[in-house]
Design brief:
Helix content: under 10%
Strand content: 35-45%
CATH class: Mainly Beta
Largest sheet: 6 strands, mixed
Number of domains: 1
CATH architecture: 6 Propeller
Distance between the termini: 46 Å
Number of strands: 27
Number of helices: 2
CATH topology: Neuraminidase
Length: about 325
């Protein structure tokens, strides 16, 4: 059975661009969403409230829709529709948001608070996760078809990098030096092993295995989100107990786990191993399901982890596939 395909990158310029020492967001509590959604749904098509242009925005993909929430209030300010299996989300340094659509083989770019694509590139390899290099503006796309597409300056035809012993590449993230990290599953389409990671160094044309010093990759049981926090690579929800993040020291082909971050969801909630995450003002923003299969977005302190400090429910039957942060240009 094909594994559930979900994506980052967290995404993200969050770990890549939003680290820092800002204070945590707000206090715990549910955020009312239905009233704003119902008022705008009558308009039909994609929509965005005018106030969104001056807000930091959290984009949440749910396969057919991408919902937009203002931060830190978590108020619904927009909804993008018309996608066919929208999974991955990522942002560039200008705050533009890229949305991968695996069934239409398209990656669409939206301006901050925009409702119509301003650019598109095609990818016939079933695009899942994406990331934008903060230095060059190159767009990397992790593909279900065992390869990674890199679009120079996020346009034109991509360079394709393959890894024959990999299956279902899911998440990717650039570090601050233009190196690209990818995770997915080893093995074949008929049977695969626990997740492993790849590394494409800046200027290289060959993917290499990213190795952990002193331990085997089998400790990372699922392909979780990847983010760069300005100093270290962070792998989300990749641990034995699924509710863990790992922070690696160093950059390049080798890394060492320097911190394990455990997250706790309320009401017996489950934080799945394939979930996306991002950072916003010294917080982790991630997703979880409760016992009634409700879908939630939650905030945890970074890098401390522990119990969520804030959360809200997102509508729709699909689990949130991707998260991205678009910082207001104003």
């Amino acid at each position: 059975m094909k594994p559930l395909i979900l994506i980052v990158s967290i995404v993200t310029p969050v770990l890549a661009a939003c680290g820092g020492s800002q204070s945590p967001i707000g206090a715990p509590g549910a955020m009312p969403q239905s009233r704003a959604i119902a008022a705008q749904a009558k308009r039909g098509g994609s929509w965005m409230l005018p106030e969104a242009t001056s807000e930091d925005l959290l984009y949440v993909s749910k396969l057919k829709n991408v919902f937009i929430y203002a931060l830190p209030s978590a108020k619904v300010v927009g909804n993008l529709i018309g996608f066919d299996y929208a999974t991955g989300l990522c942002t560039d340094q200008s705050g533009d948001v890229w949305v991968t659509g695996s069934r239409k083989s398209q990656i669409s770019e939206f301006a901050h608070a925009g409702t119509k694509p301003i650019a598109r590139v095609s990818d016939d390899n079933e695009p899942i996760g994406c990331a934008v290099d903060p230095l060059s503006g190159d767009l990397a796309v992790a593909n279900y078809a065992d390869n990674v597409s890199v679009y120079q300056h996020a346009s034109g035809n991509p360079a394709i990098y393959t890894a024959p012993d990999f299956y279902n590449m899911q998440f990717c993230s650039y570090d601050g030096s233009g190196n690209l990290y990818i995770d997915g599953y080893r093995g074949t389409h008929q049977g695969f092993e626990p997740t492993a990671m790849l590394w494409l160094s800046y200027g290289s044309t060959r993917l290499q295995r990213f190795k952990l010093e002193g331990r085997r990759h089998k400790g990372l049981q699922s392909a979780g989100g990847l983010q760069w926090d300005g100093k270290s690579l962070v792998v989300g929800y990749g641990g034995k107990y699924r509710d863990e993040l790992y922070r690696f020291s160093g950059v390049g082909r080798f890394g060492k786990v320097t911190k394990k971050i455990t997250l706790t969801a309320s009401d017996g909630g489950d934080i799945p191993g394939y979930a996306a995450f991002l950072l916003y003002k010294s917080n982790i923003i991630g997703t979880y399901d409760d016992v009634d299969l409700g879908h939630h977005i939650a905030w945890w302190p970074y890098p401390g982890g522990g119990a969520a400090v804030k959360e809200f429910t997102v509508r729709g039957k699909f689990f949130p596939a991707g998260l991205a942060l678009s910082v207001s240009p104003k």
